[in-house]
Every structure is written in C-alpha cells, then in structure tokens.
Amino acid sequence: MPADDLATLLTRAERLAVRRLRAVLEGTGCTVDAWRVLSLLADGEGHGMTAIAERVLLPPPTLTRLVDQLVDEGLVHRRVDPLDRRRVLAALTPRGTEHWRRLDGLVRADGPELPGGDGDEEVLTALLARLITRLEEVGDPSARRLPAGT
Hints:
Layout: H1 6-25, H2 32-41, E1 47-48, H3 49-56, H4 60-72, E2 76-80, E3 88-92, H5 94-110, H6 120-138
Antiparallel strand pairs: 1-3, 2-3
Helix pairs in contact: 1-5
C-alpha cells in the first residue's frame, strides 16, 4: 500500500485541520465538537438530532449531552418540527448566532491559504463533497460480502 493513498491523505489532513481548529478555539470555551454543531446549525434551518449526529460524527448520547450544554449556555434552542410534531429540531438562538459569527471570524482568519489562490478552496470542497456522496452511495462494503462457506 503506497504511503500516500487517499485514505491516509484524508486522515492526515483531517487530523492536522482539527489540531489547528482546536488551537484557534482554545480559550473561547468552545470545543471542536461544539464548533461542528454550531456550524451546522448556523444555516438557520433547524436540524433533527439524528441528522446532526450523522453530520458531526458523534454518537447520539454524546450529542444529546453536548446540545443540552449548548441549550444551558443559551446558544441553542429546541423546537418542535412544524412538519412532523413528533420530531424536535435544534437551532441557534440569536445569542448562538452571534457567538458562532465571532468564532467563525477567528477560524477563518487563521485558516490556511491553499496554494493557487482563489478558487482552490471551492474546488477542494466540491471534490470532497463528491467523494462523500459517492462513498455514501456505494455504502458499507462489509454489508456486500458473501457469507462464509458460500
């Protein structure tokens, strides 16, 4: 296996990016996981807990504790989904939106500039989004394996 296969490169990039994000957030009282939740909720749409857990890669019990903390801090509120009254959506409060904007400014100011200048970030984002979509489409390869002895 080559040292620069795609999985290794993606893992290394993710770890370096998280290390840098953690350093930027240090002293703000915001964790990387909280940042991910706030960033998702910053779209103003309101999201169900299952969708948030899948998107920010947290187990549901961990996410529930984190969202409870964000609610206690007045950054997030829960509301009933108007389309499905059985479902609860999480969304940023006005205070949460302002808090996220401050943090976003810090993160963006510290973000590494990609070589090639303008457009590289958009290209990389589009390529990663396509890769994620494709991987989700093909699913888990272990689910397609033949049973032993067949």
